[in-house]
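Hey, can you fold this one?
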Amino acid sequence: MTSLFSFVKRYIYPLAWALFIGILCGFPGKDIPHVSILELLEFDKWIHAGVFFILVFLLSRAYLTSPVELFRHHAILIAFCIAVTYGGLLEILQATLFIDRSADVYDFIANSFGALVAVGWIKKIGLKKS
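Sure. Predicted structure:
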């Protein structure tokens, strides 16, 4: 029971954030507001990058506290790979399962870009086990 509690405690924030991202990506396209000035600036791509930046940060923090040495040692790489894979999976789901949504390779690129920027930022600040 203690290991389950520590697992939940360690991963609650990244799992909740991933769920939040999944819910946002699953909204029907007609329910998403369109603002022309923001579309001109490709504001949605910055949103994609930002939410995946946060996902990598949260996952990295969680893996840095893992009892598994391999996870601690490769926390940032694992977090990056999970985020990029999750971003790709969400695009596939938008193309195949979600109502009134379609896959967008540029969204996937923005997701991956945000994840990559997070890796660079984490390495620069020297994120440590807390």
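The chain is about 75% helix and 0% strand. Let me know if you want another pass with a different chain boundary.
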